Amino acid sequence: MIVDVKSPVPSDIEIAQAAKLRPIREVAADVGLSEDDIDFFGKYKAKVHLDVLKRMKDRPNAKYIDVTAITPTPLGEGKTTTTCGLSQALHYLGKTVFTCIRQPSQGPTFGIKGGAAGGGYSQIVPMEDFNLHLTGDTHAVGAANNLLAAAIDARILHEDRRSDARLRTILCPNDTFAPWMYKRLEKLGIKAGKPSELSPEDLHRFIRLDIDPYSITLNRVVDVNDRAVRNVVIGLGTSSDGRPRQTGFDITVASEVMAILMMASSLKDLRERVGRMVIGTDKKGNAVTAEDLGAAGAMTVLLKDALMPNLMQTLSGAGAFVHTGPFANIAPGNSSVIADMIGIKLASGGYLVTESGFGADIGMEKFFDIKCRASGLIPNCVVIVATVRALKMHGGGPKVVAGIPLDAAYMTENLELLEKGIANLAANIGFAKKFGIPVVVAVNRFKTDTKKELQMVKDAAKAAGAFGAEVSEHWGRGEEGAVALAEAVIEACEQPSDFKFLYPLDMPIKEKIEIIATQIYGADGVDFAPAAQDKLKLYTNLGFDKLPICMAKTHLSLSHDPAWKGVPKDYSLPVRDIRASAGAGFLYPLCGTMRTMPGLPSRPVFMDIDVDLETGKVVGLS
Amino acid sequence: MIVDVKSPVPSDIEIAQAAKLRPIREVAADVGLSEDDIDFFGKYKAKVHLDVLKRMKDRPNAKYIDVTAITPTPLGEGKTTTTCGLSQALHYLGKTVFTCIRQPSQGPTFGIKGGAAGGGYSQIVPMEDFNLHLTGDTHAVGAANNLLAAAIDARILHEDRRSDARLRTILCPNDTFAPWMYKRLEKLGIKAGKPSELSPEDLHRFIRLDIDPYSITLNRVVDVNDRAVRNVVIGLGTSSDGRPRQTGFDITVASEVMAILMMASSLKDLRERVGRMVIGTDKKGNAVTAEDLGAAGAMTVLLKDALMPNLMQTLSGAGAFVHTGPFANIAPGNSSVIADMIGIKLASGGYLVTESGFGADIGMEKFFDIKCRASGLIPNCVVIVATVRALKMHGGGPKVVAGIPLDAAYMTENLELLEKGIANLAANIGFAKKFGIPVVVAVNRFKTDTKKELQMVKDAAKAAGAFGAEVSEHWGRGEEGAVALAEAVIEACEQPSDFKFLYPLDMPIKEKIEIIATQIYGADGVDFAPAAQDKLKLYTNLGFDKLPICMAKTHLSLSHDPAWKGVPKDYSLPVRDIRASAGAGFLYPLCGTMRTMPGLPSRPVFMDIDVDLETGKVVGLS
């Protein structure tokens, strides 16, 4: 550890600022990266060049571990903290280890939640950078998204004002097609050597995108919790200020561009995915893409550095990638494909610990069926984080609400509640086993948990088929607190595994959704609302039916209803609509209303954040 | 030079990409900066720590040179290019030299204008980084601005829903005032040990900002040319989505936060300026600040890294700071105070070349009266960039419009037009001399300029009182092309100077504006519209009358009317309104309508920008 463990445990930022960080140059050198392989961002952060993948392609892969959780309380059960703690313990045991986690959004950092770099003695450092700009990737995502948004409204305005012939001379100077225009010509089935050779009909189809303003699904984004821009009317003013239309802003991390950055496996793949982004349709219903707008190249330019994973360190001083932060409902909620692809080579001979968002029903399922499919990597072990607190909630305990003190039921021994709730753990273990991967349960210990309670969880985990189950105290004790967990994980990684996806891609969309609903969520079936039924047809016709499914569902229940705790049964999963992220490469059925722009509470945490003017250090970040 | 000069001159990006960049570590070492003084951003960019100022405080200042221009055509007359060329030539002559320029906005990079890193063989490199994210400073400005904007609408919403007592328990947990709250208590003249001790009246005044939604002047920002968000209605949806109101988005660089970053001379100064930002008034007309909202600390945290100047290099391989990009009309249009303060020490014994935006009537006047006042630095020489093209325009030549080929009058010898237009040059030379600083005129040569034309400009410059006047060919020839200019500048810097501000700060607002209008713009007087007259009183009452004046005026004429070329006379300058940037620290009278959000043209330059997937290099950036 690069920090001394103290008791009582200081605040996260105090621990992080007390750590003696290793120069990132040395952290990089540990895993075979030279200074030519990285771009420094100060002394303690770096971006890793993608071409190391080529150089290291013959290295054997590290063992690949996904950290997930049972169905959490609204407080979260310590997944990132456990991810860091497990990594630190593997390092303590002398193993080569690398960690991959998501970058948080600045919105929650200043809103309700505060930071997300782990906690206590299990953290990624420097935690201020982690929770703030880091290396600017989220800003790059916002810039790319908003360039595309501006391009849409500008195009509508300019098409309104010009004839086909005038548009041709403006958009095709020197009677030449720009390189990206050939993709549109091909899509439209038009063959022409020069723009001037197009027939009037073909010119009209080619030069005019004819975007239907009511069809536009691309929102603008900001990386702030700003509820006031959820629903806006833009284009007011004069005729030169565009045409009025209603639209909205999402938080940057909810954008498809962020999901694309997470899914891309190379610069070429990134360029193609960006080009495929559908922003809406023309007035005949045909999809209009970023490529059609001529914006995909510039967007890729804005994103090219953001595609390189960000190297930081755990409190062990070992390497960690912090990369991409897509939502876990409308997007896969995992750190990037490219970070895992590189990390698994950097940790060759050892362990790559990665984290997936929300509980196993969502984050882990998407990790397997979407992320592993994109990366081609096969996991060796799943760690499911469980807490006595959450299991008591699933057993019928009082409501857990962020910002309100916990009920006494959670602070004193209550084996009855716990026993009733333990079915949720068993269900989650079962999900991982369906994919053929050994499971280790990490019981993230809180100080009020009793020995009997902890033992009950361990016993239940093994009874449900977990390969191992260990109590872990990494939050308060750091690496030493997670040694038993790490040893169980090491052993689990040596077990034979039989990895399989939950569904094949060439299955009809409807069946893919039904498999997830019945096999994972425990539903009897799926109710497709009329809008969703229309989309089943539309996306099949558009050829999007070979895409994987990214369920947009609450993480607070295995079902679609956040109030249903434990293991809900005897219900039908309602799918009210289905959307496509054609660029990122998945369909996302909506099981409820997904909020894509949080709001600020009455007392946002930004009110405590400031700079110490003597030291220049950040204070009040939690 | 770190690149070989070729003829014909290749495109800017080809020259930039052909350059053999020196590692920024070496560039830093040349001026006495160790690796502990800088934070690397890759191999060719770094941020310089502010504490070098303390260490270098006893070093003598370098000679301080401001590069400005005559009243330009809409195409620009090559000020940045001349700044780079002059620096490169000083370096060629064996002098220690450092360059400070502004960072451009990404909006124009993808819109009409393209890049702004200089041009030809006089550039800052790497030019892709220069024109794109660089180190993320503009993104940080946007994040800070938009956090404040979200805080405003959230506060209005939450105040609407809560009683004074409830607001007190929420905003002052544990019956404690947050540190920043004491500034508000002091402002309100309230003394209280604890929140619970406030009288109902004092609590009401303290806890409720009571923001008047119609008074809010703070816009949200994006760094994209997006005309569709100039005028918007936000807060639509349900009651939990905020309250509807009309507002707008500016381009990020037009924000007061960007101006604050430019003006700040230390982290402490930055924190104070951010806190003083006025976002609007309460319903009684009292100013509401970022400090009142409790957002100033978090905003400073977002900006603290952005305050460090960005070190890059010229095509000489010598150091250059690229830092901050405030507008030149509603803001001072100069690179940062802090970059010049550090640069003048780094170039000790040599020369610091800095650039101010627009022509001498605006950028240079603000450089002297606003920037030099904030930094305490005294310039030694002003370089005025002139072109035969622009002077012909001032002599009555045909209209010059971006994107439309130049009239023949500009491509062939026309001494008559030139002679008529030369008064504009003489006027600009006169402005610099009013400040007591020697002037060198740089005639930025275009290939169609004839010897007679160039000689006429040189002669006229000297007749108007310029210390020197030289033809410069840095664009096509690099450092060697600007040797004569550099030699003249070296000599000018040895001349005695008698620097004085145009006006003292304690003069009434009205008189300060009148002095600028009559002494610089050549007006007979000023017409203050009723709104402006009201502001004269208001700002005097608010104590803002000691601030310097930042005129918001077109750069295309010495007057307020862009169509009036040459040296307009016999007119009165209309001031339609006056605004305050209380945080940045200036008043800006509006002489016309200032656009703070550009739009995208019919064929934006982003359509040519892409990534070469083989090399990973940017193509099409110009």
Please render the helix and strand layout as text:
2 copies of one chain form a homodimer.
Chain A: H1 12-18, H2 24-30, E1 38-40, E2 46-48, H3 52-55, E3 63-69, H4 79-92, E4 97-101, H5 106-110, E5 118-119, E6 122-125, H6 127-131, H7 137-161, H8 164-171, H9 181-188, H10 200-207, E7 220-222, E8 232-234, E9 245-247, E10 249-251, H11 256-263, H12 267-276, E11 278-281, E12 287-289, H13 296-303, E13 310-314, E14 319-322, H14 337-346, E15 351-355, H15 360-375, E16 381-386, H16 388-394, H17 415-434, E17 439-444, H18 451-463, E18 468-472, H19 474-477, H20 483-493, H21 509-520, E19 525-528, H22 530-541, E20 572-575, E21 577-581, E22 586-590, E23 610-611, E24 618-619
Parallel strand pairs in A: 3-15, 3-16, 4-14, 4-15, 7-10, 16-17, 17-18, 19-20
Antiparallel strand pairs in A: 1-2, 2-13, 5-6, 6-13, 8-9, 11-12, 13-14, 21-22, 23-24
Helix pairs in contact in A: 4-20, 7-11, 7-13, 8-10, 12-13, 14-15, 15-17, 16-17, 17-18
Structural overview:
The structure is a homodimer of 622-residue chains. The first copy, chain A, is α/β, with parallel strands linked by helices and 622 residues long. Chain A folds into three domains: 313 residues, Rossmann fold (3-Layer(aba) Sandwich); 161 residues, Domain 2, N(10)-formyltetrahydrofolate synthetase (2-Layer Sandwich), CATH 3.30.1510.10; 82 residues, Formyltetrahydrofolate synthetase, domain 3. Chain A is built from 22 helices and 24 strands. Chain A is globular. Chain A starts with 11 loop residues before the first helix and ends with a strand. The interface between A and B is large, with 86 and 86 residues.
